[in-house]
Structure prediction request, 112 residues.
Amino acid sequence: MFEIIKKTLQTGCQTTKYPQTPDFAPQGFRGKPEFIAEKCTYCADCVKVCPAGVIWLSEKSGEKTLSLSCCGCIFCGRCEEVCKPGAIKLTQEYELSAKKKEDLISSIGRKL
Prediction:
C-alpha cells in the first residue's frame, strides 16, 4: 500500500486546471462554424450538403437570411468544404453551452 502512495506522490498532478486556465484545441480541430457575412452569396450550397440539416435559408419580406443552429451540428466540416466564397469557417471554439436553444443559433441576412 505504501508503494502505491509513494508512486502516486512521485507522479504528481496529470490533469489540466480547466476552467481556471483556458484549454486550447489542437491544430485541425473542427469547432463552432461561423458565417462571414461579407463573403456570403446566399447560394445555399451549405444548406444542401449539411447532413444534420441545421443550416437553412429563408426569404421573408425582401430579405434572405441564412441561419445555423449549433444544437444539432455534428461539426463535420462539409459546409466549409463546399462554400466557394469561403463564407463559413470552422473555428477553434468548443465551449457551446447556453440556457436556451435560441442562443445557439447564428444568422446573417441581406436585403434583396
Observations:
- Strands lie at 33-35, 55-60, 63-69, 88-90, 105-111.
- The mean pLDDT is 90.
- The chain is about 20% helix and 25% strand.
